[in-house]
Design brief:
The protein is mainly beta and about 575 residues long. About 5% of the residues lie in helices and about 45% in strands. The strands form six sheets. It has a 17-stranded antiparallel β-sheet that branches. The chain has a five-stranded parallel β-sheet with strand order 1-4-7-10-12, with helices on one face. The protein has a four-stranded parallel β-sheet with strand order 2-5-8-11, with no helix packed on it. The longest helix has 12 residues. The protein is globular.
Length: about 575
């Protein structure tokens, strides 16, 4: 099947003059004729089939129909024929040319000159799930739209890990039923229990996480509401490293990069996509009972005989909060962006509560005073801005700016405080290097849940932080490992299941500063580090060096995904 015949049997939603008119995907779903035509086009023996990120280099020419699944396409050379792109974005670089028609399913056109495409362009926003079978491509059963009979959705039993393997609860394992209705506006119900390999530190042997979420509205203006309840251990900060990275560090190296608290309660939320933009607004109300949690003794592969780092004290009691979030995402790829920008901002206001900060105990385990009341009427915020710029087909520049902390000038409760330092923020410095003296001394206190004496730090971190990151990246000239080495793939070579290693080098610069907002603790000075790294398939080896401080040394570390 030719792409022109496929376009002729479905509703044409955009044409190639001008290209700017087809930047926005359609909002009509995936018609069955379109799905069948896409599969037929990919299975046609005359189609050159590729998987993952694909680049047609300057001077390179591909003759005939091209089908790409599961990756972005950058055309700097020539495709002398039609292009079908499934689940990826298209960029036609200056000088690039596609002589035929273009159909994009599950993506968009990032950039192209008005005369870069000789035929028609059609863009559909909905992704299409495909599977490789018997040397061809088929639609996965869950993605088939025209089922026989009445279909209202599906249910399954899930078993998966929770946030991350940690020094409080070991491995949290979530299990239970998940139900989701069919259609473009599904209802989702999760009813999950949480079993912990370490449970002596929490108030309940079993936690839980229950949520009901309903989506409604057209694809370009989605809205949703939800209600949930929970009893779980939560990290104070988690933006520096992924859950997988934090888990592996704890399990393999006895190094937990996060601190935690326990929360019970319920929450309700609403969200709305702003029409005509890449922005979504969210509003969430939380009513929680909060408590500090001591460290446990989960098993680790190395250094298992060493004690774990102590936890910080957090205020305990009831707290009601309201949080407003705005997310604006115009990156060309959420996992490995090279162009676009990203903004995320949230403001949290404490509405009411009765929070008390536990006090240390003496050698007879008697409190040294009365618990200190903590103001529940705080206001705090977190803003993150990222910009990605492609300087050439093989080089890109990225920057990230984070500003977070108190908006009313007072020190907020510990679970809204912030720190800098470590591989997730300033890799040239130690973990929690900028914590405004929070870990300068340990205090004995009696844990509310276990009744046992536990050492703890007096607080978590600083009231405010500012953090800046800059990164320059390029491709290594190792064609054998790159997914754009050329479309010379033979039948049965695993085109659909191939791995794009895409080796790259990078240089980076980081800077940060923190403010205490507490007269008993000093502000942290401005610090900076520099470094370099090599990434292959997203996994990176990095070296960082601090530009200030008394303990300057090169820090070597690994990351399982890009830094930001």
């Amino acid at each position: 099947m030719t792409l022109r015949s496929l376009l002729s049997v479905i509703a044409i939603t955009a044409v190639a003059a001008p290209v700017a008119a087809v930047q926005e995907p359609t909002d009509v779903g995936l018609p069955p004729d379109l799905v069948e035509g896409v599969v037929a086009f990919l299975n046609d023996s005359t189609t050159t089939r590729l998987n993952g990120y694909t680049r047609i280099a300057p001077g390179q020419s591909v003759v005939g129909a091209v089908g790409v699944v599961g990756g972005d396409v950058e055309v700097a050379g020539t495709i002398d024929g039609d292009l079908l792109l499934v689940n990826g974005d298209l960029t036609v670089a200056p000088g690039g040319r596609i002589t035929g028609d273009v159909l994009i399913v599950g993506g968009r056109v990032i950039a192209a000159a008005d005369d870069a495409v000789g035929g028609e362009i059609q863009v559909h926003a909905d992704r299409l799930r495909l599977v490789a079978r018997r040397g061809g491509v088929e639609v996965t059963p869950t993605a088939t739209a025209n089922r026989q009979g009445l279909y209202i959705g599906g249910a399954r039993i899930t078993v998966r890990s929770g946030t991350n393997y940690n020094r409080v609860e070991g491995l949290p394992v979530l299990f239970g039923p998940v139900f989701r209705t069919s259609g473009p506006n599904p209802l989702r119900v999760d009813a999950l229990a949480i079993w912990r390999t370490e449970h002596d530190q929490t108030r309940d042997d079993l936690g839980f996480q229950v949520a009901v979420d309903q989506t409604f509205g057209p694809a370009t203006a989605r809205m949703g509401v939800g209600l949930g309840a929970f009893s779980r251990v939560a990290p104070i900060e988690s933006w520096g490293l992924t859950d997988l990275e934090a888990s592996l560090s704890s399990f393999f190296f006895h190094e937990d990069y996060r601190d935690y608290f326990e929360e019970r309660g319920w929450h309700a939320w609403a969200r709305a996509q702003i029409p005509g933009t890449a922005a979504e607004f969210q509003l969430e109300y939380r009513n929680r009972d909060l408590t500090a949690v001591p460290t446990g003794s989960p098993w680790t592969l190395r250094r298992n005989d060493r004690p774990w780092r102590a936890q910080p004290l957090v205020p305990e009691g009831d707290l009601q909060t309201l949080t407003a979030r705005l997310i604006w995402d115009e990156r060309n790829d959420a996992d490995d962006p090279t162009d676009g920008w990203y903004f995320s901002g949230r403001v949290t206001r404490g509405l009411a509560g009765s929070l008390l900060l536990p006090v240390p105990v003496d050698e007879f385990l008697e409190p040294s005073g009365d618990p200190t009341p903590v103001d529940a009427g705080f206001t705090t915020g977190f803003v993150e801005f990222r910009r990605y710029a492609r300087l050439s087909p093989d080089h890109d520049l990225s920057l990230r700016l984070i500003a977070a902390g108190s908006l009313d000038g007072d020190l907020q409760p510990a679970f809204y405080q912030h720190t800098l330092g470590g591989e997730g923020s300033l890799p040239g410095y130690r973990l929690f290097e900028l914590d405004c003296g929070a870990r300068s001394s340990l205090l004995p206190y009696v844990h509310r849940g276990t009744g046992e004496p536990e050492p703890a730090y007096g607080r978590y971190g600083c009231s405010r932080i500012a953090h800046f990151q800059l990164q320059y990246r390029g491709r290594l000239p190792i064609d054998a490992l790159r997914g754009d080495a050329g479309p010379n793939l033979s039948e049965g070579s695993g085109w659909f299941d191939g791995v794009d290693l895409d080796p790259r080098w990078l240089l980076f610069f980081d800077a940060g500063r923190a403010w205490s907002q507490d007269g008993d603790f000093a502000d942290e000075p401005s610090v900076a580090d520099i470094g370099a790294g090599i990434t292959v398939g997203g996994v990176g080896a990095y070296w960082a060096y601090p530009l200030s401080g008394d303990h300057r040394r090169v820090n070597f570390f690994l990351r399982l995904q890009r830094r930001f």
